UniProtKB/TrEMBL annotation:
Pfam families: Nitroreductase
Boundaries of every Nitroreductase domain copy: 16-182
Protein's name according to its UniProt entry: 5,6-dimethylbenzimidazole synthase
InterPro entries reported in the protein's UniProt record: BluB (IPR012825), Nitroreductase (IPR029479), Nitroreductase-like (IPR000415), Nitroreductase/BluB (IPR050627)
Record GO terms (molecular function): oxidoreductase activity
CDD domains according to UniProt: BluB
Length: 210
């Protein structure tokens, strides 16, 4: 049984604080085997009923990448049109994806039809399959950050369009599109906070006691 001492905990807290949603990447490729290793660590995440429902699609084909990039552009234009007049200019200045630079792009899915786990723990809450995949994404994110690698989660995107572009089973549930690579710069403050879009709130604001 490993011992996690104070020094380790301090470094872990640093890792949590410095995990950022990266949008600006260097184009440098990652060393061979890096993504396979990080995805292996992602699979250590907890999953309901030990179902391991995560499915990772490495998007390497230029045509498929272009289709997903166009998908983002269409969705982003619609999102911009829905902003209030006082927020539209700020929204337009935000960099909300890193697809043009990130050397690695991964579409993440949940397989709700997996028989692994025999349905344990998800009969009343089938969405726990999706939650399990999110924990895998976060595990991947932290493991990548520990190696100086950045991750950006693109959410301004049409799931059906991504699924069609990647030719994966239609019953898989799209969870997110990840851009992965070395960040151009590092900061412990969220990008959207530095841009003036939003700020973190005190922990007490989200804790209720009954």
């Amino acid at each position: 049984m490993p011992r996690f001492d104070g020094a380790f905990r301090a470094r872990l807290y640093d890792l949590l604080r410095w995990r950022r949603d990266v949008r600006r990447f260097k184009r440098d490729p990652l060393p061979d085997g890096t993504i396979d290793r990080l995805l292996g660590l992602a699979c250590l995440a907890p999953s309901v009923g030990l179902s391991e429902p995560w499915r990772f699609v490495l998007v390497e084909d230029p045509a498929r990448r272009a289709a997903i990039r166009a998908n983002f552009e269409a969705c982003n234009a619609e999102a911009l049109s829905m902003q209030s007049p006082d927020r539209a200019a700020l929204y337009a200045r935000l960099k909300l994806q890193g697809m043009d630079e990130a050397p690695v792009q991964i579409a993440v899915y949940a397989d709700r039809e997996t028989v692994q786990g025999y349905g344990l723990g998800r009969m009343t809450m089938p969405e726990t399959i999706d939650y399990s995949v999110v924990t895998a994404v976060h595990t991947f994110w932290l493991a990548a950050r520990a190696e100086g690698i950045g991750v950006g989660w693109v959410s301004i995107i049409d799931p059906a369009g991504v699924t069609a572009a990647l030719d994966v089973p239609e019953d898989w549930i799209f969870i997110g599109y990840l851009c992965v690579g070395y960040p151009q710069a590092e900061d412990d403050t969220p990008t959207l906070q530095r841009a003036g879009w939003e700020h973190r709130h005190a922990t007490d604001d989200v804790i209720l006691r009954r």
